[in-house]
Write a structure and sequence with these properties.
binds zinc ion, mainly alpha
């Protein structure tokens, strides 16, 4: 076992040819995610304080939602840091799954938050609870709308500049989140107009929003931990490897570990090939797969002699 740096690269034999992300663009994306998360954290904390001051459950739910979004960004960061550590002899695939493990924790926090916001809303609705300092509450909801819109705009601009689909999708998420704050605002305006049920009803609507985030995070994490992958990845890898001259049949498997898509191809090749020629085929397969699936981060190539 070589242990020169305490790390080894399991995919070293078949390096994927493409530089997947330009380092500069990745840094810009990370900076955008970090600044957005900081902005949302400030927004969420301010909303939380105002929710406690006013007793508004709509604002409470919206604050919890924004803070859960911040925590998911924190997990992405954590995963990115840990995955850069690289494999060791004990963790020979690296610590990429740390992100998925943390994701389970985040999902639990989101579900508990949703339950909390829901229970508080129902209690206020049934108990005819009152809302104090409605004007400050309205300012808090407006802050929620503005905070999410500013963050959405910022992510969209950076995302388009560096052509990051993830960042653009994230911008859309923040844009939709402004709707949740608008719900809290509508509830408080109803309260100001003398309709006491406005705030708890808005609280229930915002609870549904939190439940939606919880559902997305949960299905994503469970799918990854169960080694789920879009079937197109398999068909694309099998087609790319199977079309190479000398390959009789190719069988592919793939799974995500954290942010890394690991593709494994078992190829039945012409039995007359030498080991060196079979190895060269592996390099060609890596190039072909990287061309169709640029998100592939690790490639394993296994050759078998096809029956004559
Ligand atoms: Zn959200």
């Amino acid at each position: 076992m070589h242990k020169t740096s305490g790390q080894r690269d399991p995919a070293a034999a078949f390096p994927l040819p493409l530089e997947r992300d330009d380092a500069g663009e990745r840094r810009q994306a990370n900076r955008a995610v970090g600044i957005s998360a900081a902005g949302l954290a400030v927004t969420g904390l301010a909303e939380l304080l105002i929710a406690i001051l006013t007793g508004s459950v709509g604002l409470l739910g919206d604050a919890i939602h924004n803070l859960s979004d911040v925590s998911t960004s924190a997990v992405v960061f954590l995963g990115f840091r840990l995955s850069r550590r690289g494999p060791t002899e004990r963790y020979s695939y690296g610590l990429e799954r740390a992100e998925d493990l943390a994701g389970i924790g985040i999902a639990l926090v989101i579900w508990v938050s949703a339950a909390f916001a829901g229970v508080e809303s129902v209690r206020k609705l049934l108990g005819h609870g009152s809302t104090a300092h409605v004007g400050i509450g309205i300012a808090g909801a407006v802050l929620g709308i503005v905070g999410n819109q500013v963050v959405a705009r910022y992510k969209l601009v950076v995302g388009r500049r560096i052509r990051s689909a993830t960042l653009v999708a994230d911008a859309r998420h923040s844009w939709l989140d402004a709707l949740s704050s608008a719900g809290a605002l509508a509830g408080l305006i109803a309260v100001a107009a003398g309709q006491h049920w406005g705030d708890p009803v808005a609280g229930l609507a915002v609870t549904l929003f939190i439940g939606h985030v919880g559902w997305e995070v949960t299905t994503d994490v469970v799918g990854r931990l169960a080694d789920g992958v879009e079937p197109e990845v398999i068909t694309a890898a099998e087609a790319a490897a199977g079309d190479l001259p000398g390959v009789v049949h190719a069988h592919a498997r793939a799974r995500w570990t954290g942010r890394v898509l690991r593709v494994e191809v078992e190829a039945w090749v012409d039995p007359g090939l030498t080991a060196r020629e079979a190895d060269a085929l592996g390099h060609q397969a890596a190039t072909a797969i990287a061309a169709v699936r640029p998100d592939a981060g690790s490639f394993t190539w296994i050759t078998r002699a096809a029956p004559e």
